[in-house]
Please model this.
Amino acid sequence: KELFKVRQEKSMRSVHNIDQTIMPYEFKEAYDQILAENSVSVTNKTEQQEEVPEEKSKETLSPILRQFYDLKSKHPDALLLFRIGDFYETYGKDAENASRTLGITLTRQSSQKDKDGKPLYMAGFPYHALDTYLPKLIRAGHRVAICDQLEDPRQTKNQVKRSITELVTPSGDQSNTKSIDPHEAKAETVNSNIGKLVEALKGAGMKVVPSVYSHSFYHAETDTMEVVPEPKSYTYKGASYLNKVCDRANEILREAVAYTGTPERLNRASRANMLPESSERYERLVQEMAAGSLMLKMGLPVKISKNNLDNVDFWQRELTEDPKLLDRLERDVNNAIEVLEKISKGQEVDYAVIRGDSSVDTLQPRSYTIASELAKLPDINTREVVLVKDRKNNSAAVILPAGASLEVNNELPGLSKQRIISVLRKEGINDIKFYNAGGALGLNQPNDFFRGKTAEVAKLRNWNLVTTSKIDMKEELARTAKPELKSVSLQKVSEGQHQGRYALIIRPVDGETVTILPEKNDVTRFFHAVKESNSSAVKEELGQKYLAIASQHPELRMDGLFMPKVAEDLDLKRINRVSLIEDKNDKSKYLVAQIDGMSYRKKITAEQWSSMFYVDDKNEYKVRLAASLLGAEIQQADKNRLQFEEHGDNEQAEEQNENSPRRGFHR
Model:
């Protein structure tokens, strides 16, 4: 009333109560009475609002909230800790209670509604803090239901299965107490994940049959895996049940890794460059390491198979003696894990890409070295050894045949190291060392080591060394001479079936350019070396390596990889005066060419510009690039020419018809 002034005027108009929207609720009855006294009908919309069924309200909830409320309905009086990823989340009243008790942040989501249609309250904490927060909730008098994930979210495309694994009550509260063994819940999750992997392997083409024995086994000959059934939960309880499940999972994972190493897949045996027995032991090490890594990813304990315990000493010795073996092991383990993860996700596996290039991997020759050739000459049957003598320094290296031992007290008949030492010392050689025929303890020296030395094959005869053959070291050194390289570069292929791969372009000082697809590991080495100071050494090493491969396996060469592809029926002679230019202002690259006397200008990519420098015949490259870029213009020009010729022929025919005498009747 204070806002209005009295005016000496009388009129009839509609009056709206502006206080109605902000009237406090406690004055509602008084306001309704005033309206009733003035014969105004009152409609209580709140009382008339239809109650939404719980089933209908659930339809508006997200799948996560529906799952939360379904589990909450089983223990309505408990505070539900709902595991989502790396957090335990709570919603609604549980979130308010958890926030008040634990002092954690309470979030109000206006965009999301709870089952009552009100804004959703949320609170949560990291899963690893459960041991910190759970006692606080129990001391505050809350009954707590712990809900965990029963499967790995990364292994499923559907909603993650969850279940209440434990119900914790305050001391003295015995109302409806039911505790689910966490070991058994974990075991069910493991069985689910392993079952999905086995089904994925079946989908990839592997045969799976029940095992008639007490263990799982993969048969490479038939590409079949025998799988033992899941342990029965009524036979084993709690931790013992989980242990049985983990043992079965570990065994199946080892055999799944064996599946990835077959010749048609990752071909680990051929790439190991080991003797058959050593290669088999190495394969078992890869299986143990890859399976163990996958077990750790699932948070499970790892055990070495009883069948492989005898190989532990061998593995330790090989890893100690061969520094490069650890890098190879890491590569093979990671490749096996990558294959199994792709299969479990239903993705297509390109084994050639994972292991590098299949043709290079299977055909790549070991680089020729004098040391490797000399290691082939000792013979255990004829008792022959190789003597590498350095007369200048009075030293000698003795290469023993395979099967002989470097230990002095461990001799073979006819191969007494003490006699060999005695004979060589009579020749004035005092520094004498013994080596195995290859392997980590072999004479693994670069070719320059043998410069100025002599080599011969000899055998003991009583107290004398009889030479059976001599080796011309000058000839061997000439064979190992490497060509001088002008440049070694790596370029990504932008088109064709090898699109996305990297090609190595090697340009010798004398000779034609060689293009070849390198292994994935060598691509990684190349890029790492570019960032460091040893890039020249790595480029030289890779260039010499793949130049030797290309010379021994010409079918691996990809010399036309960067040459543009053109239609076979296109006459390249029509294209002339082609050049590639760069705009000085915006640094854009262009191709300029003449076709049938007409000039054309076309913008090109940086890859098309740089590819010109990876071919020997740059003029041919430019002409073919013009043909590939201006193919549509050439076709249109041909079409126009044909139409013009046809049109010209028709006009000429009509002109001839007009000038020719016509036959007719004369009047």
User: Anything to note?
Assistant: The mean pLDDT is 80. The first strand starts at residue 79 and ends at 84.
